[in-house]
Write a structure and sequence with these properties.
This protein is α+β, with helices and mostly antiparallel strands. It is built from 19 helices and 37 strands. It is about 25% helix and about 20% strand. The longest helix is centred in the middle third of the chain and has 21 residues.
Length: about 775
């Protein structure tokens, strides 16, 4: 071909590319797992399948004595310059640290360090420097180049396995370090016992028992490389101890077949490789053989498992199709991704799992899930999953909660559970609203009577969190129980959801009893000051009183009177009446958002982040507050506050979450808010209408219907809702019913530059409150 012809062909091809239609990015394409890995988000960038049992991800620091544990709760922090290794288990966005089990790290060359080293001293151990320029993260896939070892590391995961792929430099020996000492929040004495052994077929198995956030947590592993081992060493690095292994005196040596101890590390040698090394890892809470069975339950190599997981993510994220400017689409798609990481699968391929009684159980006809951060996720995360996940998945969640209650030594539903173990972290009995909301929205397939009995038992167990006094006095007394003001109102809300479910089931005796208890919030509300306050057992309010004070273990849980005084989701109308009416409520809401914090110091409270006045978006007690203007007949003020929150609290960057994602709650808030509505009171079967932040979205609902959401004329200037139409008919109220969403069709917002002060303002147009409740349809 002549040069002129070549130039002509190139020009024609370039023109064709320019003219060709560009395929719209899917929700999968837009999701960015790096969002939240910096700042206070506490998310991880590694590979996980939807609700996967294994979350294989890089750990940039695991030693609390070296760096701040809170900031490294997910193992990875975007600002760190080195990677210690890749462990198999992680929380997404938790405010506490644990997991980081069974860390692997590839090392190239003849010398193989077995200590991670100081991050400030490159090449002093197996830790390696890395660059974000050589890092990739997609749902179900992660890759990075380890500069100090010359290794390209890739990670993927299936529902119960993680797969590592390491490309070593040509001509250099390939090794993998397995460090059983490494753990997140790894304080001295956390590792109670561990073991490792090499089986005849080359599979490496072992176990570990830890004493961390969850007590006496047992976990087993199976590791299978795709090439035979050329050699290995199992070593116990604990000092001043007698040998406890199976092979005679010594502290471990080359080719020892198995070893036990509290500080085990292994070196796995593979020689010089012509192709990348693949290492498949599975875990189990039951035993080593169960971990092997999990390993064998997912066939295929790295690429096959990655392809299946990508397909699973494309389907899961495809439940919400988004049309919005790229930054917003990226934030919302990532928020949906984060919302689909937990609760995590925890039963093995054969259905077995270790429960809260430390005994092995079998899930019959369902998949047992754990990692329930219920104080956070009852608010929006679980309501979102009812809209975007199949009924079977939500049924798994409910059955898992009930199975845990049946195995609980106290007969109680989970509070904050992971890996089958109860931590008793946070307050309330918030498995109750998760179950009630699911039942009231039509989820069936579980024993509703047994569920209601479990809910009542959890709400009646006197030794838990001051419940005995709560049942006798109608409030939790602060001189007998810490965080009493918060507990009183959270118990009252949970009680209301029990009443709602009992009423729907025809259990009138339970419904009446718990509806009375649902009004207990009044007993700690001080009408004179306008704040929720802690009472003593004699009925007096505790003094001195400072509504801005935040101290752990004081009157409130991770907050103060400003946030908790709005927590009456079951009866905002009654609370507004005690404040003096709608105008007084609106004025107080404005004071909350506009409060001058310049002289307040909350640096001692780790979870307090994302402040707008006394509104704290980085923690859950504030999450419903912006929507409360609609209860006072001023929905346009909700629209103003939502814009203020979204613009200041979310960014499409690693530091793009203002606070802990808390297993999806912070993200679920954004997904709902971007769509234009939010479940202020799960259990009411209503969603408060706010304003959309995406031009169009389509919800693929679990019943097969589709809801198209259109924001006509949406722009930065057109920030207010002028009209709302549902299937072409004007919607003059500030709420949607669950049944209307599930029926599908079209929800259309017409946006305008100024507030519409007539839409959604009438008392009959306001969202649910139990004291003003309308007959349900």
């Amino acid at each position: 071909m002549s040069p002129r012809a070549h130039r002509l062909l190139s020009a024609l091809l370039a023109a064709a590319v320019i003219a060709a239609p560009v395929a719209a990015q899917t929700t999968y394409d837009s999701a960015d797992p790096f969002i939240g890995t910096g700042g206070e988000g506490h998310t991880f960038p590694g590979a996980v399948a939807p609700f996967g049992m294994v979350q294989v991800s890089p750990d940039t620091d695991t030693g609390c004595e070296i760096r701040d544990c809170y900031g490294h709760a997910a193992g990875y922090r975007h600002g760190d310059p080195t990677i210690q290794g890749f462990s198999q288990t992680h929380f997404s966005g938790a405010g506490h640290s644990d997991l980081g089990d069974f860390l692997l790290m590839p090392v190239a060359g003849d010398a193989v360090p077995l200590e991670p080293s100081d991050p400030a001293k490159p090449r002093s151990g197996y830790r390696s420097r890395f660059s974000h320029d050589q890092e990739v993260a997609r749902p179900g896939y992660y890759a990075v180049s380890l500069i100090d070892h010359g290794v390209r590391a890739e990670l993927t995961a299936g529902p119960r396995v993680g797969v590592h792929r390491y490309a070593f430099p040509a001509g250099k020996a390939a090794h993998v370090v397995l460090d059983l000492r490494s753990s997140l929040y790894n304080y001295p004495g956390k590792i109670l016992w561990s073991s490792v052994r090499l089986r005849a077929d080359g599979t490496i198995t072992g176990s570990r028992e830890t004493r961390g956030w969850a007590p006496a947590r047992k976990l087993f592993f199976a590791i299978r490389p795709n090439v035979p081992l050329q050699g290995h060493a199992f070593l116990d690095r604990e000092e001043n101890i007698p040998y406890r292994g199976f092979q005679g005196p010594g502290r471990g040596r080359e080719d020892v077949a198995q070893l036990q101890g509290r500080a085990l590390v292994a070196r796995l040698d593979f020689g010089k490789l012509a192709s990348p090394l693949e290492v498949k890892v599975a875990i189990s809470s039951v035993d080593e053989d169960a971990a092997i069975a999990n390993l064998e339950s997912e066939a295929g190599d790295f690429d096959a498992i990655r392809a299946r997981t990508r397909a699973a993510w494309e389907q899961a994220l495809g439940a919400v199709e988004i049309d919005a400017p790229a930054p917003m689409k990226r934030m919302v798609a990532t928020a949906l991704y984060h919302a689909l990481l937990a609760p995590s699968i925890f039963s093995d391929a054969d259905g077995r799992y270790r429960g809260p009684d430390d005994q092995v159980h079998r899930a019959e006809g369902f998949t047992f899930h754990s990692t329930f951060s219920l104080w956070d996720t009852f608010r929006a995360e679980h309501p979102l999953l009812l809209l975007v996940q199949p009924e079977s998945r939500n049924l798994d969640f409910v059955k898992s909660l009930l199975a845990s209650q049946q195995a609980s030594p106290f007969g109680l539903l989970p509070v904050w559970q992971f890996h089958g173990r109860e931590t008793w972290t946070m307050i309330g009995y918030h498995a109750v609203p998760v179950i009630a909301d699911a039942y009231l929205k039509g989820l069936r397939g579980f024993d509703a009577d047994a569920a209601l009995d479990a809910m009542v038992r959890s709400a009646s167990y006197g030794p838990y969190g001051g419940l005995d006094d709560y049942m006798k006095l109608g409030f939790v007394p602060i001189d007998r129980e810490p965080e009493a003001a918060s507990k009183t109102v959270e118990y009252a809300y949970d009680d209301w959801t029990i009443a709602r479910m009992a009423g729907a089931m025809g259990r009138a005796d339970i419904a009446q009893r718990f509806e009375r208890r649902a009004g207990n919030w009044r007993n700690s509300f001080d009408a004179q000051s306008g704040f929720l306050r802690a009472r003593k057992a004699d009925g007096s309010f505790r003094t001195p009183f400072d509504p801005t004070a935040i101290n752990y273990g004081s009157d409130y849980t991770e907050g103060n009177a400003w946030q908790y005084s709005w927590f009456v989701p079951q009866d905002q109308a009654a609370m507004f009446a005690l404040l003096g009416g709608d105008a007084a409520a609106v004025a107080k809401l404005d004071r909350m958002f506009e409060f001058d914090n310049s002289k307040l110091d909350y640096s001692h409270a780790e979870d307090i982040a994302g402040l707008i006045g006394q509104y704290i978006h980085g923690n859950e007690p504030s999450h419903h507050v912006a929507y409360l203007y609609a209860y006072a007949g001023q929905p346009w003020r909700t629209q103003e506050r939502l814009k203020q929150i979204v613009e200041s609290q979310y960014k499409p960057t690693p530091d793009g979450l203002s606070g802990n994602d808390d297993l999806g709650q912070m993200s679920a808030w954004l997904v709902f808010t971007a769509l234009g509505f939010y479940p202020v009171a799960p259990g009411s079967n209503e969603y408060v209408i706010g304003r959309p932040f995406v031009d169009r979205a389509t919800l693929a609902l679990p019943n097969g219907n589709r809801l198209l959401i259109v924001a006509e004329g949406l722009s930065d200037a057109n920030r207010y809702v002028g009209r709302v139409a549902l299937n072409g008919k004007p919607l003059d109220r500030a709420y949607l019913r669950h049944g209307e969403i599930m029926a599908g069709g079209e929800l259309r917002f017409t946006m305008q530059p100024g507030p519409e002060r007539t839409w959604g303002t009438a008392p009959a147009a306001r969202p649910y409150s139990m004291s003003t409740a309308r007959p349900e349809r």
